[in-house]
Each structure stands twice: as structure tokens, then as C-alpha cells.
Amino acid sequence: SSDVPAVEKKRWTLNDFDIGKPLGRGKFGHVYLAREKRSNHIVALKVLFKSQLQQSQVEHQLRREVEIQSHLRHPNILRLYGYFYDQKRVYLILEYAAKGELYKELQKCKYFSERRAATYVASLARALIYCHGKHVIHRDIKPENLLVGAQGELKIADFGWSVHTFNRRRTMCGTLDYLPPEMVESVEHDASVDIWSLGVLCYEFLYGVPPFEAKEHSDTYRRIVQVDLKFPPKPIVSSAAKDLISQVLLSLHFQKRISLSTPLEQLQVSVIYKCSFFSPFF
Ligand SMILES: CC(C)NC(=O)[C@H]1CCC[C@H]1Nc1nc(Nc2ccc(C(=O)N(C)C3CCN(C)CC3)cc2)ncc1C(F)(F)F
After folding, report:
1. Looking at beta carbons, which pairs linking 253-260 to residues 24 or more positions away fall under 8 Å?
2. Separation CA 138–CA 5 (nearest Å)
């Protein structure tokens, strides 16, 4: 039988798109609303200047971001459809999130209701379970990296700091015995860094400020390592929500102490389960 010709990777060019209004500025350039001419599909076109990428030596990071994000398919992860470049610029063809940037929404309403926070945290936990299942760690979960889709759903974007870790536990069956604790633990430690950030995010959704904020960096650092977690009297937050935060936040320390028998997914599923306590909508 004639073998099916390999599907040629589509070579995109600027001519494939009608460029619309600017959506704002990203780190290395502008983002435009755009429409792919053949399909009329609306996308966001992120334009990055090669000169700036070279100056900041982030080309390898951008390559990793494209490689990782283009392979992820999840309703709460912003799609990266493709990329192309010309003499001076690199263009990322990204999913358009109709309701914009979450941090602006958080600034506008100061803090979110428990129901809204729980909905966001549960969807992020599901997205992280998906990523960790593919040995991908985002490592930069924060309001600025979250966008909102047309139905109000959260989309994790900007995988610039993400990494692909080989789950040494599974690939090193048997030889795990000779690894020192920090090596054996580090896989869990790496992936649960996102869970820690989810706890910080949950706190910020509910109180409008991150939990360890301080004037000086050194104070913030000390508050984090001591897990100096305080819940202000206002706004009023349910004890179920506080438990989730303290267990999820503290779980990183808890994670360091537990044996590898409690896999990360169990912790993440418990996050979603605990969300149901402060939001009857699950
Ligand atoms: C995660 C990453 C760190 N962040 C970013 O990349 C930022 C940098 C600039 C824009 C955003 N990138 C994206 N933004 C959208 N949608 C969007 C954004 C802004 C508005 C909005 O509020 N206005 C236009 C308002 C409309 C009203 N006027 C007054 C102000 C701007 C509405 C929809 N979809 C996909 C992307 C993406 F990511 F694919 F590029």
C-alpha cells in the first residue's frame, strides 16, 4: 500500500493573517488580535523582537516554551498553535482569550468571592495534574500569567519558565535505592512547586494580596521559609478555605517530610476535593 505522505508541517507567514487591534504588550513585544484568512479562526499573535530575545539570552527558554505549550491540550491551558519568524521577529500563534487578563480583574474587584476563587483554583489544579502527568512543570503560576476565556474559564499562559522533567522514579525503577534523599525527593519537590504557587494564588484570590508580602525582599524570603502564614480578619473567609490554603501551602513542607508513597496527584485531587467545601458548586 502506498504509505500516506507525512503531513507537511504548515509553514505560516504573516500573509496568512489579517492583523487586528493590539491587545497589549507582552515581555518582548506586542500582542495583536488576528484572524487566520483561510479558516477565519481568531487568534492572538504575539510578536517578539529577535534583538530583544538575544539581548536577554532567552532564545532557549522561548524554544522550550514553544515545544512544551504546543504539545499541551487542556481547556485551562492556553493553546499555542504554531510559530513563524522573519528577519527581525518571531511570531507565536496563540489562542485568543476573549475576557483578557485575570490580574486586571483581581485589581478591579480587590478580591474574589470564595465560589469564584474555588472555581479558579479547582480548574488550575486540574490543569496542573494534566501538566505533571506529562512531566511538565509550569514554575511561574501567578495572576499575571492567567487569562480568561469567553466563558470566564481560566487559561494558564506563558510557559516561559516551564520545564520538562523525566520522572526519575518511574524511569529509574530499582536503581532508586542508591539516590540520596535530595535526589529522590527533588522530582516531587519540582512538581509540587506548582502546588505551592496554587496555594499562594488561592490566598491572593481570597484576600487580594499574596500571603508573604513584605516591604523588603529579605522579609518576604524569611516569611516564606518560616511559612509565616497569617489570615487577616477581613475579608471574612471560611475555615474550609483557610484549611485548604494552610494544608496546600504547608504541604510543600509536608511534601518534603512524607515518603514518596503519597503521589502528588493525590495531593492535587485533594485540593479539588477541598475546594468543594467552600464552594457548593462542585
Ligand atoms: C499571559 C501573558 C503573560 N499575558 C499576555 O500575553 C498579555 C499581553 C498582552 C495581552 C495578553 N495576551 C493575550 N491576551 C489575550 N486576550 C486579551 C487580552 C487583553 C484584553 C483586554 O483587556 N483589552 C484588549 C483591553 C480592552 C479595553 N482597553 C481599554 C484596554 C485593553 C482582551 C483580551 N489573548 C491571548 C493572549 C496571548 F497570551 F495569547 F498573547
Report:
1. 253/227, 255/188, 255/189, 255/192, 255/195, 256/185, 256/189, 260/169, 260/184, 260/185, 260/188
2. 35
State how far Cα 87 lies from the chain centre: 31
Q: What is the pLDDT of residues 120-138, one digit of tens each?
A: 988 888 898 888 888 888 7
Q: Which residues contact 16 (CB under 8 A, 6 or more apart)?
A: 36, 37, 38
Indicate yes or no: pTM above 0.95. no
Say how far apart CA 242 and CA 195 lie, in whole Å. Answer: 15
CA 118, 121, 126, 132 torsion-angle sign: negative
Q: Rounded to the nearest 5°, which phi and psi values hold at 143?
A: -55, -35
CA 90 – ligand 1 centroid, Å: 18
Cα 97 to ligand 1 centroid, rounded to whole Å? 7
Helix (H) or strand (E) holding 102, with range, is: helix 102-109
- Which residues are catalytically annotated? 140
Taking only the tens place, the pLDDT of each residue in 1-36 is 455 555 557 899 999 999 999 999 977 889 999 999
CA nearest to 22, candidates 89, 77, 96: 96
pLDDT in tens, 89-104: 999 999 999 999 999 9
Residues in contact with ligand 1 by the CB-under-6-Å rule are 23-26, 31, 44, 46, 78, 94, 96-97, 100-101, 144-145, 147, 157-158
